[in-house]
Amino acid sequence: MMHSVRIPRSRAAIPSRARGAVLFIALIVLVAMTLAGIAIMRSVDTATLIAGNLAFKQGTVQSSDNGVEVAYQWLLTNRAALSVSNAGQGYNSAIVSPAWTNPATWASAVTVGTDTAGNTISYQIHRMCNCPDVPYNGVCAVTALSNQCALDNPAAATAPPAPGEGESFTVGAPGYLQDPKVYYRVTVRSQGPRSTVSFIQAMVAIAL
């Protein structure tokens, strides 16, 4: 009588294949996590860089106030000679609109200095008139026309203004004409760290 003998199948190959698949999946997950970590680090570095640039930019804007103040004080001190341009002091007695971002435009500007934040401030001043080197109420030599200037109180006013607050409002109370004021445009360039540059303009009125 013959008996059949079942030979058991080997199970050694199945665990080997399973271990290989798990290792492959683990490597894929590890690579994905590494790429995600690198992406997060780059995102954080970029955000930090942008925040730093914005802070430096804001610093140049704030430093520009110093340039406006220095230019204003120069106008007050030299208001008797403002009919004539003074290139050495960054002053032009007529209005022009140059390319402010061109470095050549700032060749004749006045450099106030560098503050503690590393911002270098320069300024230029332009009188709001269409003729250079002519008094605000003078005649242009080229066109033989009156000089046109932006004034706060035109000199052609003939009637005195009404009494202001704090003055007498009785009949016949005196009213006084104010001195005419000419407008001047102050343009300030502030250069800071990381190549940050800001341009600020302010209008000031100086009594003649």
Write the topology of this structure.
Elements: H1 13-77, E1 91-92, E2 110-114, E3 120-127, E4 181-191, E5 197-207
Parallel strand pairs: 1-3
Antiparallel strand pairs: 2-3, 3-4, 4-5
H/E series, N to C? HEEEEE
**Overall spatial form:** rod-shaped
Helix content: 25-40%
Counted by DSSP, the helix tally is 1
Sheet with the most strands?
A: 5 strands, mixed
Instruction: Give a count of the beta strands, DSSP E runs of length 2 or more.
Output: 5
Q: Structural class of the secondary structure composition?
A: alpha+beta
Poorly predicted segments = none
Q: Which percent range describes the beta-strand content?
A: 15-25%
Tell me the span between the first and last alpha carbons: 137 Å
Mean pLDDT, to the nearest integer, reads: 80
Computed CA radius of gyration, to the nearest angstrom: 37 Å
How does this model look, in words?
The protein has 208 residues and is an alpha+beta fold. Helix content is 31%, strand content 18%. Strands 1, 2, 3, 4 and 5 form a 5-stranded mixed beta sheet that branches. Strand 4 and strand 5 form a beta hairpin. It is rod-shaped, with a radius of gyration of 37 Å. The chain starts with 12 loop residues before the first helix and ends with a strand.
Top keywords for this entry?
alpha+beta; five-stranded mixed beta sheet; 1 helix; 5 strands; 31% helix
Give a brief description.
The chain is α+β, with helices and mostly antiparallel strands and 208 residues long. It is 31% helix and 18% strand. The protein has one helix at residues 13-77; strands spanning 91-92, 110-114, 120-127, 181-191, 197-207.
